[in-house]
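note to self: dont lose this again. the chain is below, predicted strucutre after it. 254 aa total, dont forget to put it in the shared folder this time
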Amino acid sequence: MLLTVLGTATPYPRPDEPCSGYLLQSEPAADGRRTSVWLDAGTGTFAELQRRITLDQLDAVVVSHRHADHSADLLVAYYALRFSEHRPSGPIPLIAPEGMLDRLAAYLGPNSVDELPRVFEHRPMSGFGEASIGSLRVEWGPVQHGVPAFGLTVEEDGRRFAYSGDSAPCLSLEEIGERADLFLVECGYDEPVRSDAVHHTPEDAGRSATAAGAARLVLTHRAETLTVEAARERASAHFDGGIDVAVRGLRVEI
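---
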């Protein structure tokens, strides 16, 4: 599998840094084509996605939760998937929390109610679930973020990728990341929060990756006060494997 970082900013985009979004692709098939999944659709990531693939190459969208910095670009993608010269021939599977199409329709207006199902085939996330997208096997489960939010794993040919979405440290996330070859974990806090935590610090991310038995850690969704160097150093005190810090354009083979 191949992971490409489209953006990591929290909670709003900055110059040259869109919000959360990733392109996850399968190994190439015999004809060279990869299964392509847009993972989280934060503000600014749709343009970055189009640097990598055309829309008719997009196989599915997975959204970890409904906060705008992970989902807002679904609004503009709706228009592109309807009217672009590269639009797909049918609706794109959208694996996302319950109520996502209703939320989109509230912004797009009443005329979109009938059109949205022709653009997105919504597969609601609720509790634990799984789906197949081409050669990729996707599983998800709830994590702790104060709203319905999900971490997920993707497997192909024995290789295992895991993603925290936005989450405080929790047992569910450790189970989701179990034995991951690459664990993509957010670090939206610079300093720990005493109660009602909804994000990781870098130290938390290192501990979550260690508890999961992950082989490699990629830190993402960095708090704006955290430098790349500080995030890596602080996580490394709690995780012995390789650590990368996500920035726009980073590509990682899994």
